[in-house]
Amino acid sequence: MSDFAATKALFDLPPGLIYLDGNSLGPLPRAAAARVAQAVTAEWGQMLITGWNRGAGGPGWMAQPSLLGDRVGRLIGAAPGFTVLGDTLSIKVFQALAAALALCPDRRVILSDDGNFPSDLYMAQGLTALLGQGYALRVVAPGDVADAIGPDVAVLMLTEVDYRTGRRHDLPALTARAHAAGALAVWDLAHSAGALPVDVAGGLADFAVGCTYKYLNGGPGAPAFIYVAPRHADVAQPALSGWLGHESPFAFDLTYAPGPRIERMRVGTPPVLQMAALEAALDIWDGVDMAALRAASLALTDRFIAGVEAACPMLTLATPRAHDQRGSQVSFRFAHGYGAMQALIARGVIGDFRSPDIMRFGFTPLFIDAGDVDRAVAVIADVMGQRLWDNPAYQTRAAVT
Ligand SMILES: Cc1ncc(COP(=O)(O)O)c(C=O)c1O
Prior knowledge:
This protein is an alpha/beta fold. It has helices at 4-8, 30-47, 51-54, 64-75, 89-102, 118-131, 145-148, 171-180, 230-233, 272-285, 290-311, 337-346, 370-385; strands at 18-19, 83-85, 109-113, 136-140, 153-159, 184-188, 207-211, 224-228, 316-317, 329-333, 349-350, 352-354, 358-362. The strands form three sheets. A seven-stranded mixed sheet has the order 2-8-7-6-5-3-4, with helices on both faces. Residues 88-90, 117, 119-120, 159, 163, 188, 190-191, 211, 224 line the site of pyridoxal-5'-phosphate.
């Protein structure tokens, strides 16, 4: 469905609130509450343990990580059978990276950039420390990545869309560059999946990972996903060799043997209630044409940038203007960004703040329209014009910013 007035009606948003933070936590799909209630009462409550084989409306809870994985796969350009859900994104980063390194055994360097999400870099640091043997993480500026792909690089590990600025890397071009240099490419699609069309197969990504609680609207704590390219799926070695990635989990063999293709990237028991919420969210996505979504997203972000720049000269655009160089968020730098964002939230415009000075606004055509953009711009102009960030009530930082 690319009728975005119709998709908007499928979300339960508090009246009067303009939610520009779906890039961090997507809103509640109306159908999710009933779906989760059904999973709790009719399935967990009545089916009890038999739900593993007949829950989730029939296929069984155990089948959901692959079934829902394929539905996420469509949104990132993956063929069915090569995307699976589970765990958190940080865990999936670790898995993808470990498997990619093992496929390049003669090289020791993971190349990434300083715009990457810190958890990705932390996981790489943890993995290199664990592996020893000279493995190292090399971090360069985003603009220097292409030229830094040297002959010692085993894996290029990047997040396609920068979580702070919204800057977008060229996935096919950098992957091609990595391949030409004999390296593999691992892509984090946390800020891409559901934000813009992604083509992991066409772009020849070796591994891709992402989360489902941002643009995909799966709810807080929704499981992550991992994609393994078909050419690697049967040879990728799972570093996290949990029982549900075993070729025959219920044989309870004492020795690990990896399951077929993407199944081997499963680790342990899947989060059944979270998957029920995610299933309701994916029902909305199933009908969305990604090209239409992208066109609508760019129209919204262009409108927002023009409106804010005209009204708020003190805000500096941090997001690239070129369409092909950005995702579906717009960020502005402002020295008092934290207080300004709290003032906006108090007036019903919800974005968020990323240290040191980034005010971040996410745009999702599924539930944000041009009227919302215009109303948000008016509130931002008021907050900035009246210097409302100066209010001491807006200076105390909460645990989550
Ligand atoms: C780009 C990126 N990578 C990794 C993560 C970490 O995800 P998780 O907390 O699900 O492990 C995030 C979280 O926001 C992210 O934005």
